[in-house]
Design brief:
heterodimer, A: 423 residues, mainly alpha, 3 domains, 16 helices, disordered C terminus, B: 204 residues, Four Helix Bundle (Hemerythrin (Met), subunit A), 68% helix
């Protein structure tokens, strides 16, 4: 995008980058903030319907769709109270830490083919790392509030999130292993075609892993039935007991932001990302064209992705208003005695399936694509360069093209490792 | 134009470097243990920002995951569970300041002399635009060295005692990792025996 501003609008390079960065930031902050507005309203409606109520009906017309906005105005008008015993600096900082972490993870999350703020080769790893930081916000809030409810909540949250990261990481490894990349855009593109190409339906083990991933993701963003950190029947409101007004709402924006984030990650890793169940745009040939048609195809992909992420969030709400809250020991049991072994079993099973080249849904006749044709551009370039080098009989050292990963050296090491192993 | 003449990359580098150093100093001068941990988080996070700025996303994410995420959760656990009074404050004595200065200064001296001894780093600022990713210095050589392949010695004359190219650092690497494992097991053992001692003490 920076190139576009540089060439088309003839802005100087730094300014072009600045404009591009601002556009990305504003778009993402809208996903987080407006998303939170919509999801809070949706949660009220869903919970109301599940409990045979109507939910909000008055504000903003028929469905009460302006309810969250009214709540937001009320929250802004509230007094910002800091308790006497609180650790002033950490108390003020804690909500922002959580929101910043949740927001920061969106940088690497693609919304459609190539529509990503920062195209990273290790996007999966980045998102997991940033999600791991989010736990600091409740811990800091709980400690700094100077209240024992808050401290208990923070301790529970820390124990829970740290232990659930283990199965979560194990589940995320499986799609990365099948696709052979950590790049979310590539992982999404490899699932193009019919919905049978989605990694959840790749083999039976990946489906199990997808279910375990969703369980662990629900736990790691503190949603019921794993919301012990804010168990209101025991701990008032857990780590945000002492917060009021806008600071309190920052915790909620972070929570709903990370809910959509983990659902979106699930959509990309297991459920095809921005590829719809039926590849309409591919059949029409729009995704291979350029200009407006390509843009429309990508816009459709983006809508697909948003829909899938929202479905994930709605499932989380459904689970929340259906299942009772677990005790802390039951939460730990679920993680250590069920999620970890099942994730490990699923990982081994998927590995076995890949190694033995057992038939996957990707092999089905019809629109099934060759998964390994969708690769990162630099891998394709390196492969082409290597092929052209091999084709040239006597390349002189000066015009040997140098591949991004490792040039001639890398090939020599590869050859050496092969022959060295034989020795 | 003024904007184009400005070196934005160095500006961002200075920004993150200042954040890193500033929070590190803030950590030194704060009395509260939890504040120290918080400043340490911010300092380590800003150094991850430096890695991202250099285009090393994997190392940056690694920094976030291992240092910021893992170690500091443990640190906060330790601090919060072991601190007897909630606002435990640590006053540094002057003797400890001197000790720390000597230790830190000698370490800094060692690092600086080592860094200035590297030939490639001496000559000025090469123009970043001229350097392709392939020719830039990466950690690939070190990584290959750890797994047993010395990439820099591929052209060296064959030594009959060594497999060519295979004279890497695999053995020291394995020794260090086994050592780390032993330390971890030892730490777990000590933590458990301590708890058992207190529980029996309470029972008695």
């Amino acid at each position: 995008m920076a190139e576009f501003f540089h060439t088309t609008c003839s802005l100087p390079t730094p300014l072009a980058y600045l404009v591009a960065a601002i556009i990305h930031c504003v778009l993402i902050i809208h996903v987080v903030a407006v998303g939170a507005l919509i999801f809070i309203w949706l949660e009220r409606k869903v919970s109301g319907r599940i409990q045979d109520r109507l939910g909000p009906t008055r504000v903003g017309g028929a469905f009460g769709w302006l309810q969250t906005l009214a709540d937001g105005i009320k929250l802004i008008a509230k007094e910002d109270i800091t308790p006497k015993d609180a650790d002033w600096m950490l108390f003020k900082a804690a909500p922002y830490v959580g929101f910043a972490a949740s927001y920061c993870a969106y940088i690497a999350l693609p919304f459609s083919d190539g529509w990503v703020a920062q195209h990273m080769n290790t996007a999966v790893f980045f998102i997991l790392a940033v999600l791991g930081i989010e736990v600091f916000s409740p811990i800091l809030a709980g400690y700094a509030s100077g209240s024992k409810w808050s401290l208990f909540g923070a301790m529970r949250e820390a124990a829970q999130v740290v232990s659930y990261e283990v199965p979560l990481g194990m589940c995320v490894v499986v799609p990365c292993m099948i696709c052979g990349t950590l790049n979310l855009v590539t992982i999404g593109n490899q699932q193009a075609g019919l919905f049978t190409n989605w990694l959840a339906f790749n083999d039976p083990f990946t489906f199990v892993v997808a279910v375990v991933y969703f369980t662990c993701a629900t736990a790691s963003v503190n949603r019921a039935p794993f919301d012990l950190a804010e168990a209101e029947s025991e701990l008032v409101a857990g780590f945000h007991t002492e917060y009021s007004g806008l600071r309190w709402s920052f915790f909620f924006m972070a929570e709903y932001g990370s809910m959509f984030l983990v659902s979106g990650l699930a959509a990309i890793l297991f459920f095809g990302g921005w590829n719809g169940p039926i590849p309409i745009f591919q059949v029409l040939g729009w995704s291979e064209s350029d200009g407006v048609l390509l843009y429309l195809a990508r816009l459709g992909g983006c809508l697909n992705f948003l829909l899938k992420g929202t479905i994930g969030v709605v499932v989380m709400m459904w689970v929340r208003w259906t299942l009772p809250r677990l005790r802390i020991d039951q939460v730990m049991t679920t993680c250590l005695k069920y999620c970890v072994p099942i994730a490990a079993f699923g990982f081994l099973g998927a590995l076995f399936w890949q190694v033995n080249e057992l038939p996957t849904s990707n092999d089905l006749p019809g629109i099934g694509i060759n998964r390994f044709e969708a690769r990162e551009s630099w891998v394709i370039e390196a492969d082409q360069q290597r092929a052209s080098r091999a084709a040239a009989v006597t390349p002189s050292p000066s015009d040997v093209p140098i591949g991004p990963i490792g040039s001639v050296e890398f090939d020599r090491v590869e050859a050496l490792v092969m022959t060295g192993g034989a020795r | 134009m003024l904007l184009a003449a400005f070196d934005w990359h160095s500006l961002f580098f200075m920004f993150f470097a200042l954040l890193t150093c500033g929070f590190a100093v803030a950590m030194l001068f704060s009395d509260n243990v939890v504040h120290m941990a918080f400043y340490l988080i911010l300092s380590l996070g800003a150094s991850a920002g430096l890695f991202f700025l250099a285009g090393a996303e994997f190392v940056g994410a690694m920094q976030l995951m291992i240092y910021v995420g893992g170690t500091l959760v443990l640190l906060i656990f330790g601090v919060m569970l072991t601190a007897q009074s909630r606002f435990i404050s640590m006053k540094t004595r002057s003797g400890e300041w001197v000790m720390a200065l000597v230790l830190g200064g000698s370490l800094l001296f060692l690092l600086l002399t080592a860094a200035f001894r590297v030939e490639d780093w001496r000559d000025g600022n090469p123009n970043a635009a001229d350097i392709g990713i392939a020719e830039s210095k990466t950690t690939t050589q070190i990584g290959m060295g750890f797994t047993g392949v010395r990439v820099d010695r591929l052209d060296a004359p064959e030594d009959s005692t060594l497999v060519p190219g295979m004279s890497g650092y695999l053995l020291p690497f394995v020794i260090v990792s086994v050592h780390l494992l032993v330390v971890l097991v030892g730490a777990a053992y000590m933590a458990r025996t301590k708890r058992r001692a207190t529980s029996t003490g309470a029972a008695a």
